[in-house]
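Tutorial, part two.
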Amino acid sequence: MSKLSIEKVEVAGRRVLTRVDFNVPLDHEGRITDDRRLRESLPTIQSIIRRGGRAILMSHLGRPAESGYEAKYSLRPVAEALGALLGQSVEFPSQDCLDADAHAAVSRLDKGKVLLLENLRFHAGETENDPGFSGKLAGYGEVYCNDAFGTAHRAHASMVGVPRAMAGAPRAAGLLMTAEIKYLSEVLENPQRPFVAVLGGAKVSDKLGAIRRLLDIVDDVLVGGAMAYTFLQVLGRRMGKSRVEADSIDEAREIIQLAAAKKADLFFPNDHVCGKEISDATPIKTFEDHIEEGWMGLDIGPQTQRRYAARIARGKTIIWNGPVGVFEIGPFGVGTRAVADAIAKATAAGATSVIGGGDSAAAVESFGMASRFSHVSTGGGASLTLLEGGPMPGLDALSEA
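Running the prediction step on this input gives:
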């Protein structure tokens, strides 16, 4: 999967309509609590303006309830924070990405300058991929650039309709998008072996598609997190009051049977760090194999940590999607940190490691370890869709290299 890079496009004097992912967390006072997505967009924006382009940025933020302006979902704080990171002001024209003020601001934007449009989702046409809305946005640009991998699996207007309406123009991948494509797609297509996948998270139903596909590609699949308890119940383990998805039991059983016929090995935790409730004040007890009634599994146990670390250590390609415990609560973050540390050590020894966005990325950020991996993806849902082999309409809309 090779797409035209924005660095290969002549942008001097041209309006570069750029889809970024500025869906950042805000506190109750509208302050950004994690600016990682802004920082990761900087290379693309700087590439455009350094070469004399006019960067017109568009993004969504949150899930506004209805069409129309909602102050708590405004991108204005993002424009101010981005300006501070860039070292130059970012124009933010109005409360509507398509009104007269926005059009005027786009028209007068100078070379080397940056403008951020208001939240696209204030228009229902964004999520509906409305051709009329797409066409109006497309009128802003002479070049289209997509640097929002986190929404590349969604067929929204800014991801699909806009580049379609700009069919005669270059439709390029930003530098972050290019890195995502390189690591996530190329690693899957041509991995060095052994190839190890670590899958965690809360819901087994979210990962069934990924496990099915990975069993044909990888050498080891290491399962952790709450999703493991559904599989373990199928295998006859008693799981106490751990989260078990009753409606996924049959599919979990099918996955176990499928794995038996594949070359890949499927691993589950054999000990569990448990609590009475999800709280840092709960009593803690470690169980092997079975979990007693009244207790819930909240992290992989020390035996499993060592066993998984040993499998990871032999890996030459490693993909990780989903924490293996409730890492946000101190006593139950040990397993996730152990996995992160094992992958970081394997990376230092020459392995290629890809952290699949979402909670996995949040975990390694919270541990201060993000720089120790080959690539930390910005898109949890998008990276999972790519692992599953699902549709990526945002990528399909871009020009080939």
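The chain has two domains: 6-178, 191-388. In part three we will examine how such features are distributed along the chain.
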